[in-house]
């Protein structure tokens, strides 16, 4: 009986510890959500095959390349788009719905990134991003890339940046779980929210990326 009692006590303690851990994750999520900012997509940076919603909150890949002017800000090789808002100090946070997608890129990029060429993305190139490929392969492009074991995958991703501390963190919003953090970053210029919905892949990846109100 004593061993059964010990087992019961142990299980209760495990339950309490688990509850404390869950509460800690929720508190951390709420802490970063306090720094929520309003982000909208910048059509002047969007690749010509991307379709942006009128409110600047959604982006998806279309099969027709539109005849947009090839201004310096526009991505011409990769289906990327930046946010209108830039940040050069302090902390900021935004959330993006990725539900129903098999491929996406999310994060932040510095102002001076090359927009007219196809190059692997990494912090060295001015990108701090997490990507999804093939529906279930998650990577942090840390150079070399880091495999992320996320099962199930996130439906909504939160991106938190502390510019002054050199930190970029990604969260699974619904699970209140940290996905990955880039630490020790050296930011010296403006950062912009970065998005790529990926190619539509014959309709398999036609769902849009949606910038969501935080806390909804």
TrEMBL record:
<dbReference type="Pfam" id="PF00622">
    <property type="entry name" value="SPRY"/>
</dbReference>
<dbReference type="InterPro" id="IPR001870">
    <property type="entry name" value="B30.2/SPRY"/>
</dbReference>
<feature type="domain" description="B30.2/SPRY">
    <location>
        <begin position="19"/>
        <end position="214"/>
    </location>
</feature>
<dbReference type="InterPro" id="IPR003877">
    <property type="entry name" value="SPRY_dom"/>
</dbReference>
<dbReference type="InterPro" id="IPR006574">
    <property type="entry name" value="PRY"/>
</dbReference>
<dbReference type="InterPro" id="IPR043136">
    <property type="entry name" value="B30.2/SPRY_sf"/>
</dbReference>
<dbReference type="InterPro" id="IPR050143">
    <property type="entry name" value="TRIM/RBCC"/>
</dbReference>
<dbReference type="InterPro" id="IPR013320">
    <property type="entry name" value="ConA-like_dom_sf"/>
</dbReference>
<dbReference type="InterPro" id="IPR003879">
    <property type="entry name" value="Butyrophylin_SPRY"/>
</dbReference>
<dbReference type="Pfam" id="PF13765">
    <property type="entry name" value="PRY"/>
</dbReference>
<protein>
    <recommendedName>
        <fullName>B30.2/SPRY domain-containing protein</fullName>
    </recommendedName>
</protein>
């Amino acid at each position: 009986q004593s061993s059964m009692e010990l087992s019961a006590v142990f299980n209760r303690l495990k339950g309490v510890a688990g509850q404390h851990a869950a509460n800690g994750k929720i508190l951390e999520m709420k802490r970063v959500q306090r720094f929520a900012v309003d982000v909208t997509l910048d059509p002047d940076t969007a690749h010509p095959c991307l379709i942006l919603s009128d409110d600047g909150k959604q982006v998806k890949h279309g099969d027709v390349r539109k005849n947009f002017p090839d201004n310096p800000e526009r991505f011409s090789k990769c289906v990327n788009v930046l946010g209108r808002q830039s940040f050069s100090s302090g902390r900021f946070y935004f959330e993006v719905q990725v539900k129903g997608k098999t491929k996406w890129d999310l994060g932040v990029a510095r102002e001076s990134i090359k927009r007219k060429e196809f190059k692997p993305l990494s912090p060295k190139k001015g990108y701090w991003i997490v990507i999804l490929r093939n529906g279930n392969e998650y990577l942090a492009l840390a150079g070399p890339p880091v495999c992320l074991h996320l099962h199930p995958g996130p439906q909504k991703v939160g991106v938190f940046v502390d510019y002054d501390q050199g930190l970029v963190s990604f969260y699974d919003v619904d699970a209140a779980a940290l996905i990955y953090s880039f630490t020790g970053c050296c930011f010296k210029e403006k950062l912009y929210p970065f998005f790529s919905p990926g190619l539509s892949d014959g309709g398999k990846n036609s769902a849009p990326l949606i910038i969501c109100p935080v806390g909804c």
